[in-house]
Design a protein that fits this description.
Elements lengths: L30 H7 L2 H23 L6 E2 L6 H12 L8 E2 L2 H30 L5 E3 L3 E6 L2 E10 L5 E15 L5 E8 L5 E5 L2 E7 L11 H7 L2 E10 L4 E10 L3 E3 L1 E3 L3 E3 L5 E3 L7 E3 L10
Parallel strand pairs: 4-12
Antiparallel strand pairs: 1-2, 3-5, 4-5, 5-9, 6-7, 6-8, 6-10, 10-11, 13-16, 14-15
Helix pairs in contact: 1-4, 2-3, 2-4
């Protein structure tokens, strides 16, 4: 099997690891999308770069007409630069002002560009702030253990925000590298049926449970065979964020070395002395031996 088809497709953080080359370049066509999804530091760095570059270009243009701006010192690039800053920002302190036709045209062009730029950056920042994102946390390990006498794959997730996710649904998919009869290397996607694939409200935790019955794609596999197969299990959760009424989604990937056999997740729920129910999030990733447990199940 070609190692390419055995490589991990999704990182543990849910990011796609497949890099595309040879695709027709269309940087301007996807510019809005690229700016929307990039990180805030990268976005702000690009805004500052464009702002500086614009002022440098216009400062250079103003120097083409040495007497075009009143009170600008002859040969002073700093004066030209800061006059450009005032014009682009439509500040206009009044100490320096255009007095030639050439300077008037350049000032009008820069002021118009500054107005458009301010509107675009403001719109992009608002779109980035309002873009819905979920904070769903997945356990670092998935577990396979007996549950009601049946080998079961379990993945635990939690909503890391105070407000819930409404109409949440989940999917588990096994990505299996294999070959066709003709020898073509491919990836097959097998849906892993869940005992419960949806919940009306996700407030805290949810354990995704897939019984490994004879009909399961995982049936007959053990730790060694899954490691040799280099399969990947992908968990995807979708729902509606109650606070903003917008759809959100999160994903997480597990490979064979991230599966723990013979253990289950520790119970996070307990009862306080005053009778209230307490969820200990410090035990979110904790695993315990798979023995009968009398506390109510969270899954």
């Amino acid at each position: 099997m070609n190692d390419v088809h055995r490589a991990r497709a999704i990182s543990p953080q849910g990011e796609f690891l497949i890099r595309t080359i040879g695709r027709p370049a269309a940087p301007l066509r996807d510019l809005f999308h690229d700016l929307l999804v990039m990180s805030w530091p990268s976005f702000l760095l690009r805004v500052v770069f464009v702002w500086l570059a614009t002022n440098i270009v216009f400062a250079t243009i103003y120097r083409f007409d040495p007497g075009g701006v009143a009170n600008m010192r002859a040969g002073s690039y700093a004066d030209a630069f800061f006059f450009s800053v005032q014009t682009l920002s439509t500040i206009g302190y009044g100490a320096m002002a255009p007095q030639s036709f050439f300077a008037q045209v350049v000032v009008a062009s820069e002021a118009f560009l500054g107005t458009i730029g301010t509107a675009l950056v403001t719109g992009l920042m608002f779109a980035k702030f309002s873009r819905p994102t979920a904070r769903v946390q997945f356990t670092e390990r998935a577990v396979i253990a007996e549950r009601d006498g049946v080998p079961t794959l379990m993945v635990r997730l939690a909503n890391a925000r105070d407000h819930g996710i409404m109409d949440a649904s989940a999917h588990l998919t096994l990505i299996e590298p294999t070959r066709t009869k003709e020898g073509e290397p491919i990836r097959r996607f097998h849906e892993l049926t869940l005992e419960r694939s949806s919940t009306p409200l996700l407030n805290l935790t949810w354990t995704l449970v897939h019984p490994i019955t004879p009909e399961s794609p995982l049936h007959g596999h053990d730790a060694e065979s899954l490691a040799a197969l280099q399969a990947e299990i992908v968990a995807v959760v979708r729902g509606v964020d109650i606070a903003i009424a917008q759809p959100v989604s999160m994903r997480r990937s597990y490979v064979a070395c991230e599966l723990v056999w013979g253990k289950r997740f520790a119970d996070m729920m307990s009862r306080a002395p005053d009778g209230s129910i307490v969820a200990d999030c410090r035990r979110f990733n904790e695993l315990v031996a798979n023995v009968p447990h009398s506390s109510p199940s969270e899954g």
